[in-house]
Design brief:
The structure is a single chain. The chain has five helices and nine strands, in the order αααααβββββββββ. Helix 2 packs across helix 3. The longest helix is centred in the first third of the chain and has 15 residues. The relative contact order is 0.16. It is α+β, with helices and mostly antiparallel strands.
Length: 191
């Protein structure tokens, strides 16, 4: 199974496990019902930003979508040759509650991330090039060898304003109650 087929099947399975309609999934993720249907039927590849919205709305780790269980070798998520390529280094670890990604961002590329679920902490370390990070409206430039830790449940963006591809690692640490493919406990809705 290739990554696109895995992504489509995983989305459909997660939706059906929750007994959600496409309309309910659209409401929870902020992604249109039509786009979600196309992704489930493997007729369209979501952008990295769209896939983050879906993962956040379903309250699952991002790597659940891009790491087929029987994957041999390196799997990269490069939807339609987009400017941002995400490759899992260490996919979702339910015991340690983190994902670790290697990410490249093409010159001139901007990726705006919707806030992840409450309690997510993200660590970004620049390997090569210069990465501009925006957290809550404030831009900061990171050089190779520099890192930044921030609350991933706040609005944030990644930008490459340089002339060379920027390479960085992102470690995303999820709250303890997250389990692979299962929603975290939602204490806000308890009676």
């Amino acid at each position: 199974m290739n990554i696109a087929q895995h992504l489509a099947a995983t989305l459909k399975n997660l939706r059906q496990e929750r007994a959600w309609s496409l309309s309910k999934l659209a409401e929870e993720t902020g992604v249109s019902k039509a786009m979600l249907g196309q992704i489930e039927r493997n007729e369209s590849s979501p952008t990295v930003a769209t896939l983050w919205k879906i993962a956040t709305g379903l309250n699952v780790p991002f790597s659940v979508f891009i790491t087929p269980p029987e994957a041999d070798g390196e799997q990269s998520f490069d939807p339609q040759q987009q400017a941002m390529v995400v490759t899992p280094i260490f996919p979702w670890d339910p015991e340690l509650c983190f994902d670790h990604f290697s990410i490249t961002l093409a010159p001139g590329a901007l990726s705006e991330s919707t806030p992840h679920e409450k309690g997510v902490i993200e660590h970004v370390v620049v390997i090569g090039g210069q990465l501009d990070m925006c957290i809550q409206g404030e831009w900061r430039r990171l050089e190779a060898g520099e890192g930044l830790r921030f609350a991933g449940d706040l609005p944030h963006a990644y930008r490459n304003s340089g002339e060379q591809t920027v390479h960085f690692h992102s470690i995303i640490h999820y709250p303890k109650e997250k389990a692979a493919g299962r929603p975290a406990a939602n204490h806000d809705n308890e009676p």
